Amino acid sequence: MLGRTANDLYWMARYVERAENMARLLEVGQRLSLLTHESGHSEWRSTLRSAGCEEGYLTKHGAYESDKVIEFLLLDRNNPSSVCSCFDTARRNARAQRTAITREMWESLNTAWIELASRARPWMKANELPPLFDWVRDRSALFRGAFLNTILRNDTFFFTQLGTFLERADNTARILDVKYYVLLPQNELVGGGVDSAQWAAILRSVSAHRSFRWVYRDTFKPWHIAEFLMLSSEMPRSLRSCYAEITGALAGLADHYGQTPSCLELAQRTLKTLEHGEMTAIFQSGLHEFLSDFISNNNRLANEIAATYHFND
Amino acid sequence: MAFDEMRGTAKSKRVRAPYRNIAEWLDEQPPEDLQRKSAEAEALFRRTGITFAVYGSADPGERLIPFDIIPRILSASEWRRLAAGIEQRVRALNAFMYDVYHRQEILRAGRIPEDLVIQNAAFVPEMIGAEPPRGIYSHIIGIDIVRTSESEFFVLEDNTRTPSGVSYMLENRETMMHMFPELFSRNKVAPVEQYPENLRATLESVAPAGIDDEPTIVVLTPGQHNSAYFEHSFLADRMGVELVEGQDLVIADGYLNIKTTQGLKRVDVVYRRIDDDFLDPLVFKPDSVLGVPGIFDLYRSGRVTIVNAPGAGIADDKSIYSYVPEIIEFYTGRAPILNNVHTYNCRRPDDLAYVLEHMAELVVKEVHGSGGYGMLVGPASTRDEIAVFGKKVSANPERYIAQPTLALSTCPTLVDQGLAPRHLDLRPFVLLGDRMRLAPGGLTRVALRKGSLVVNSSQGGGTKDTWVLSE
């Protein structure tokens, strides 16, 4: 496989995943800004931070305004992480690698791209954002379904998996890090309506507000929320689940190419930390510090993978 | 009245034999069903991403080539004759290329003016003395053919550089079989789906000598923004080979390599879809970033095969075209099976005078133009357009040729008002390697505007599925 092909597959998957995450962040942001009128600004600020788009937004728009934030994260083609830009980039990468992906994958992505161009703005104008957010999630699910059901389990599969789960891990970690202060144990005492809404929002951002109850069967407790999103082996967007997939894909590549890369060890180390991690210890040594380390390690791993497999030679 | 592929001439009352089944079927279809199916086909093409980019158009996006659901049909005996003519032509053109890059017998014999070849922009002097595997220069060829009556076919143009359109031939068939399976049980249509396999076999058969393993083949594309990008990726995919850009290739240890996830890997055969000029900045255009510096030297030393060979354009140059009957006779010793259209070379003073006098009746083409750009269809042009074009021709006569306007055959085509005759041509695709492989049929292009004779997709042409019936 060409190094450029691996690179394109990886980014194709990252951008589809990012589009989905972006839609979910927007959905939660919109919900919170409706619930908490006075703190609407800070909610949009958290959303932009979680999306990694705060600086770009402020440079362009200055103040936090619902419509502008939504426009920026949904449609703005100058923002490389907007939903529209994500689909543009994912589809461009897919088109460059039509030979590597299956017809089903290409068609699901190409159809999404064609439809988004005609739907996004009218939906936003008509103030029908929830259906649009649903639609984006559906398209992403369709794409992943097409991928999982049709692709050969070779390097194409592994590089695409890496893109999906490195992006997902980054996203979950960011959501937690931006809101880490509402998850600190002392807040449990404070409680109150706003915090409870915040906790629900965090779970919603990773589509876990219902599955949480199946696992913990109690009201939202910040301690458990943090544990669920970081250490749970059941929760498919938890850091641990992401790293189980990442190490799986890297082990698959090692097997496929008959060569064990050093980045596999790096990923396994992170996975071990998550498997053996305990929330008490993490809270004691600092949740924010833990998450910052995680995010920078995740980036380091991405760079090492790119170097190992000649993504940009 | 032009000859109609389904109804014959205006006088004949009966549907021609190859079309009997389809005519019956068409009669059974409610008109609105056909329109609906046609819209479905379009949606299918868009979803699959079978698009092309139009150079210089205001809308830089991707466009579809309109697909017409009424097939164009050739009988087995019609095809046999065409196939024999095509084979003869392709062998002669390759013999011609071998000759002009070696002993130049045909020039010494005075059958073609020497300067027409040697001074030609498509002639690549660096190819003189090179020995391409099996002596083949043009492995992948498209021959443009038009029909004017029951028995008359003419070759309009040869495409010996990088002919495109074969992906449409394959996708058109795919679409027809998907949408109208019943038609294929009612008609015995020769399959075309083995083309990618044949292409691969052809490319493998011209790999450099001394390769023990299966040769590594790549398709070299200029990239996503090229108008034929869909076809490049389509062919690579169907052959199961890498689609690469210049940036993915590098010369190391005396061989051409692709940059893979596992480091460098040797490449043996390059099916290139970029022009000669861009192939190697060390030999051709120095500012090209699409090609690979040094690839030409490797090619000359037999370490990699480039398909089609550099310099293959000499055989399809429009000024050489009028000599193709001579070329066929010279190398095969036989008269051409397929005729050329009579061509006036404006570089000859007599021809120029005739052309300027009769422009309103002629089709005038730029020698180096392609894709329907830079041409004038006399009967379809205004007096002013003719006057303007005439000035261009007088200023640089050597750049132009002219041909009589042919009454291209028509075939029923679905338009907004229902079925109506529209003019067509045919581009069969030939592969030449260890042997010749000719796909039955080819790509039928249709001029969708009423009365128009220009079938190029860049000028509003569409395509049809092309059937060769088995006996």
What does this structure look like?
The complex is a heterodimer of chains A (313) and B (471). In chain A, helix 1 (3-35) packs antiparallel against helix 5 (83-96). Chain A is an all-alpha fold and 313 residues long. Chain A folds into two domains: 1-151, no CATH class; 153-313, no CATH class. Chain A is 78% helix and 0% strand. Chain B has 15 helices and 23 strands. In chain B, helix 3 (76-100) crosses helix 13.
Spell out the key features of this protein.
heterodimer, A: mainly alpha, 0% strand, B: 471 residues, Dna Ligase, domain 1, 2 domains, five-stranded mixed beta sheet, 15 helices
Fraction of residues in H or I helices of chain B: 25-40%
Any low-confidence stretches of chain A, pLDDT <50, length ≥5?
A: none
Q: Quote the distance from N terminus to C terminus of chain B.
A: 30 Å
Question: What structural class do the secondary elements of chain A suggest?
Answer: mainly alpha
The mean pLDDT of chain A is: 89
**Topology as H/E string of chain A?**
HHHHHHHHHHHHHHHHH
Determine the number of helices of chain B (DSSP H or I, runs of at least 4 residues).
15
Count of all domains of chain A: 2
Mind describing the biggest β-sheet of chain B? 5 strands, mixed
State the end-to-end distance of chain A.
13 Å
- The class by helix and strand makeup of chain B works out as alpha+beta
The greatest inter-chain interface is formed by: A-B, 24 and 23 residues
Low-confidence stretches of chain B: 55-60
Short description:
The complex is a heterodimer of chains A (313) and B (471). With 313 residues, chain A is mainly α.
Summarize the SSE layout with pairings.
The complex is a heterodimer of chains A (313) and B (471).
Chain A: H1 3-35, H2 40-50, H3 54-61, H4 66-74, H5 83-96, H6 103-125, H7 129-150, H8 155-178, H9 180-183, H10 187-190, H11 192-205, H12 211-216, H13 222-230, H14 239-257, H15 262-276, H16 279-285, H17 287-308
Chain B: H1 20-28, H2 31-48, E1 51-53, E2 62-64, E3 67-74, H3 76-100, H4 105-108, H5 114-118, E4 140-147, E5 153-159, H6 166-179, H7 181-186, H8 195-205, E6 217-220, H9 229-239, E7 242-244, E8 249-252, E9 255-260, E10 263-266, E11 269-272, H10 276-279, H11 295-300, E12 305-307, H12 318-321, H13 324-332, E13 339-340, E14 344-345, H14 349-357, E15 362-366, E16 375-377, H15 383-395, E17 400-404, E18 410-415, E19 418-427, E20 429-432, E21 436-438, E22 443-447, E23 461-468
Parallel strand pairs in B: 3-23, 5-13, 6-7, 6-11, 11-12
Antiparallel strand pairs in B: 1-2, 4-5, 4-20, 8-9, 9-10, 14-17, 15-16, 15-17, 18-19, 19-22, 20-21, 22-23
